[in-house]
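Meet today's protein:

…
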Amino acid sequence: MTITIAIYITLLGLILGSFYNVVALRVPAGESLSHPPSHCTGCGTRLKARDLVPVFSWLFSRGRCRHCGAKVSVLYPLGELATGLLFLWSYLEFGLTVRGLTAVVLASLAVIVTVADLKYMLIPNKVLLFFAPLLLVLTLLNADGPVWLYLLGAVVGGGGIFLFAWFGGMGMGDVKLFALLGLVVGFPGVLLAFLTACLLGTLVGGTLQLTGTVKRGQPVPFGPWLAVGALLAYGYGSQIISGYLSLIH
């Protein structure tokens, strides 16, 4: 039964991941989610069912449109695969519980934000406003400590990033995103999430500069790393923090 549920949840994640790509790529551009229907951005040809199978359609077409040969962004299969795997992780780690549902919603936000930020260097307000009430309710239902610790996580998360934004290091989208993520992971989980994001951002950004993929001084999206840090803190924050404290005592 567990295997059946795991397969179902993974497939659901792959399918929703395809929709999340649409949200991430259309909302920042001010486009409708339903019109026009899925189409090739190169030739405008409307895509058929065989072109819309998550991950596999991209692989079978070798990352190109079947009609005009235009390249299809790798963000599409990566967004779908990431959603499927994160849904599976949520189920295996937390089961069919409120905590598991919270992980699913958090993962959904992470995927949409990541794709949008990588594509446009923008985190849409509409996406954050949609997820904010969902995550607030789930956090209140799922709280395993005083509610004020979660509110403190939001304040520390948003306030901390705001300082960087004030000096031009980040955008206000990052501020609002991390305030919401801080609400979910609470305090001190928000500190772990931020440190993880900084570490990953520095490593990846430095590697991209060394390889010449990005130029020195060129802005690099930070939203994806904030999302990864929050997922890590949500899933394993207590164990990591407890392990660290045991080492210094």
Q: What stands out?
A: The radius of gyration is 19 Å. The longest helix spans residues 223-248. Residues 1-134 form one domain.
